[in-house]
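Lecture notes, structural biology module. Today: joint structure prediction for complexes of two components.
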Amino acid sequence: MILVRDHIAQLIAEAIHIAQKKGELPSFELPEVPVTRARDETFGDYASPICMTLARVARMAPLAIAQRVLAHLPSAPYIGKVEAAHPGFINITLAPQWLSQQVEVILAEGERFGQVDLGKGRSVQVEYISANPTGPLTVGSGRNGVLGDALANVLAAAGWRVQREYYVNDTGTQVELFAASLYARYAQALGRDEPLPEGGYPGSYLVEMGHQLAREYGDRFLTMERSQAITALREEGLKRMLASIQADAAALGIHFDNWKSERSLYEDGTYSLVFNRLSAGGWLVYRDGAVWFTETPHRSSGEVQGEQPTQAGAKDGTDKDNVVVRSDGRPTYFASDIAYVWDKLVTRGFDRAIYVWGADHQGHVPRMKAVTRALGLDPDRITIILYQLVTLKRGGELVRMGKRTGEIITLREVIEEIGADATRFMLLTRAADSQMELDLTLAVQQSSENPVYYVQYGHARIASIFRYAQERGFSPEGGDVRLLTHPAELALIRQMVRLPETVALCAETLSPHHLTHYAQELATAFHAFYKDCRVVSEDAGHAAIGRARMKLVQAAKIVLANTLRLIGVSAPESM
RNA sequence: GUCCUCGUAGCUCAGGGGAUAGAGCGCAGCGCUGCGGACGCUGAGGUCACAGGUUCGAAUCCUGUCGAGGACGCCA
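The predicted structure, tokenised, for the full assembly:
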């Protein structure tokens, strides 16, 4: 389906060229033509300020340009009225006949309505949450998950082949600390006086897991050698943590296509491959006993490398170096990230890879880009979406969080307190880069008036209309959508046909939060229509319009359902 | 100290260089003797943190100040 927005831009560009050819406008290089939704409905549906931009280069008044452009604007079935407006806008109103016809289009497309083809079959991997499997998911992980999941939905709807992945940090310092902590809790459960290791995980969930393991296995792990026991408990603990994480994610409607093991990157040779590659390229330096990745490579051949206008290059730039292998020989997680990006872009060959990271990882973005370039790959193929951390409050009191500090408000608790749909909608309504404060007492109080219910209510209301109609033997069969001319009907259709553009917007800007705002506007248009327009009635003379309105309402239900599906919340038949 | 993100209505937040800056909640009112009132309508409420700059035009872009959060070579 073509986007009306883009098509209008094309038509305006054509009109300008025609006017130029006829000498009505001077010749100049045409910049991209911006087309936006009109700010106010009295201006129509779409507007372009292009003529104001052109005023200088054309040396004409914007309004005069607009008038000459409009004189040559090619016609299109969706265009109703075009106007040049002060101080130089081109305003376009959609044709009512075209709008009403869209009801049939939507009915025909069904679940596919809203899809656009921006991806053109290219593949993209969206990797999200990827929290350390050393504790339960936090609210921050929830925000991460909801962002990533909705983004994956949107990209799929925008014509990309999408894979959803969870990266499992199943190796490294934190995992060892986790295992040692679990060992301590397990031993304690069996009455041993075993202290929690330095920097270990104090959370109560490990106390519980320790007891569970003690119940299930008795003292089996105490009779073996300590290091062997810790290894065994690590595997058992990881398995259980991952199962619990998977369940928490599922409670928010999040399901992954693949769980990628960090450890596997070492076992399958990816790590040594990228290490050798970087080494050969001169990107690795040895200093203080460690191996560093440097963004200013030392080439033994002395060949001049490409333009590297790093201002800071005057200094030797070592402050930008990052440790890949520690002085004790263990690789850092940055080493894993290097192998992982190779795995994504080369081994598995995704056209794009999208990471969703908390803002506390922002410092790592430049070096991920740098190392991707160093591997000989186009850094634009990876995109890292940063979201601001959620600060939690309870009754105005700040709640500190973190697996390592012990006190945690888990995602699970929040879902249980305010509901999965409300949680998901709430986390998705804000742009990723907005800092958000979540007061649980307030959220619980307000969850019943969460906008998500307003949208879902629209869907349920339509379902109810159909139940009512069916009892009385009414059906949309044979309805003539040309009868849909009431302002409230057209206003509803206007909102419905915005879905493809909203999907495009979300996919282009990788910001799915527009969906929730759109959903509310769509629901508002429906509720207003419902107020003004009777759908099912036995009144004389109502039969024809009744059938047409049933078609409209059926289409509205499809659009609401498609939108809710993209957001990732349910579309209930009743509530 | 350096760097990144943010600062918009009482609260939580939208606003891809353009027209009179919007929504939800809260607040003050109004509306149902037919399809779900988890609804509809109206109103009050703003120095878009502050100061400069670019531009025909800035909430939006640039610089600085203040404020919030975050990051700064062997944690992730």
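Point to remember: The two ends of chain A are 33 Å apart (CA to CA).
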